[in-house]
Fold this protein.
Amino acid sequence: MNQLFTSLYIGLSGLRANQMGISLAGNNVANINTPGYSRQRAIFAAADPLHIAEGQFGMGATVLDVSVARDRFIEARLVRENQTLGQLDTMSQNLRQIEAVFADTGGVGLRDSLNKFFASFSDLAGNPTSTAVRQQVLSAGNNLAGSIRSAYTQLTATQNTANQDVKATVNQINSLTSQIAALNTRVAQEEAAGHDSGRYRDERQLLLGQLGQLVNINVVEDSGRMVNVDLGGRSIVTGNTAATIGATVPATGQFYQITLNGNDITNQVSNGKLYGLLQVRDVNIPSYLQSLDTLAGTLITQVNTLHTQGYDLNRAAGGNFFTPTAPGASAAQNIAVAITAPDRIAAARTLPPSGPPGDNQLARDLAGLANVRQAGLGSATFSDYFAGFTGRVGAAARDAADGLKTQRQIVRQVQNLRDSVSGVSLDEEMASIIQYQKAYEASARFVSIVSSLTEETMRLLGGR
Amino acid sequence: MGIDRIVPSISYRNFLEDLTETRARIETETREISSGRRISVPSDNPAEIAKLLQFKDALAGLDQYGRNAATGRARLSYADSALDSAVNLMNTVLQRGTFAASDIQTPASRRAVGDEVTALRDQLLNLANSAYQGNFIFAGQQVSTAPFTLNATTGVVTYNGDSGVNQLDIGPGVSGGANVPGNQIFTAAGKDLFAALNELITALKNPAPSPPGPSQTTQITTALNSFTPAFEQLRAARTTVGSYLGAMDRAKQVLDSQRFQILSNIGGIEDTNMAESITRLVQDQTAESATLGIGARLSRRTLFDFIG
């Protein structure tokens, strides 16, 4: 009798354990599309045996643990690879936008304006006294100045957008770190008994991956199952607290710098979207602006130097063609034609005894500037300098795009590796469900048999 | 990186990214084929873009030289035809003068010829003051003022222009003259056409020279003889204009061949290699179809379909 009742418990343990197995498989199937979910598996063990005179007597099965399939090495690698992905993605987007400003392969825009400007002086040499041709020189000059100013404005607009993105990214980082800190508490509570907390750990890992896309982070898990996150050696998540980083414009600056506890940590940022934004804002665009300034400054000086050597239609000495740039100001931002009246354009080098000068030498010299190698442009002509500059912009955009393509492949591989370990397979889950179902059915059958045996015994006892 | 445990998320991710990449390539190839150009933004070929732009700038430069040559050609052609008329006009003067020098002429008929020659002189003056698009073409660089003025009383023609020749740039380092100043055509020292004409007119209209001197016939013959160097100067000037015109034409030929060379350089960098691009497009379209076919089977059967 004693043994029969014990057998009921054995059957019951089988029902319980296999039911749990079925539930876990069902839960895995339900979460097959949940981002970051790691599949779970029941670990079965024989229950503690009963020690009887004949030896040990098995007491059925028990679920010892729920194991979560994860490879922490691969998970950490995914966080790292995401950082470069975030950086290259941002740089590629921004540089593509900048490239569009100079994508002048067809014949509109700055390069074309530059060619037409010098060509207009050549036309003037063909007809130095014509008001119509002079008007064309003025409009070619205005177009060129407008193209340069417009390129400058578009670059600074992109720079300002990147700066605003810096602020937005900092906010995203703070939101993620505070969520990670909160999850640290949950994970620590859940895993106090030593078990993997499953969904909390999954969620925390997912957020770490997102944080990695934004900024370079280093993640270390402590003995209390909490992760400590640092940004270039500065701690931003410690246990259950997150440090808020700031984006502040310094008194002497124009753009946001990244701060932590009032200290500037901008130089600690070395990867992720935030780094990409800082690179574009502080390295790429300033270098392009500088090149534009050099081009515009040299153009203004060279044209004015020649133009002031000649005589206009009114026999007056030629003035400045372009308004000279004020000291310290940006030539590209401020370039403008100083002349408004067509007859003020100087085309002649010699002044006749009377009447308007008909000599075209100065107009030829001004047109010839197009072919003169300028010391200020590294011994390049204006158009060669601009062609080289365009090549530089294109190369930067290409490098970022190529890097991004490669990094996408890498991240895809690491994600596949992660899913290969942690992802849910429907075949496997179905096989598990059948396995548990059969075991459950057998256990139920066993309970039913034990039950009928017990009944039989009771009947025999009652019949005496 | 071999992965031995394939779960649905891996298959979907691979499918999606392969499809995205294939479609991006198809997009690029379609653009290359439809536009005929394989470079539309600098990043399409940063290594070649600077060279490409330099070629295009050089092409723009050649086009400008071509326009300059056309400008010079138009003006010089106009000058050439004016000088052609002047030569014809002078031939008429010589004819009439020779006719008037004949001994059978009377002072009255000679006076009539004198009036004719006066009219021809005024026509020559008009030719010498020819303007093309508002610019006096025989004024040197003083194109805004009529170069020759006639003193109605004395008949003396004076030159108000200068000796300037405007050069036009018609090739890299090549320039050509665009005008011949009037004082080298009509009023060159010792070869002054107007002075010769006036001498002839005076001879034709003065039957009884006083103080007594050579006969009117002799005066007319002398005047006709003094024409020779001035007429030669006019012809020489026309040759100069012709040689300037020739320079403009030659420049155009040189520019055309340079232009062809640069265009072929540009094409080498920029033009789509159609055979190659179309082959790649066909390959990628095949790959796309195959990828899509695989995608359609991604929701492939699992154990769930067989056990119910």
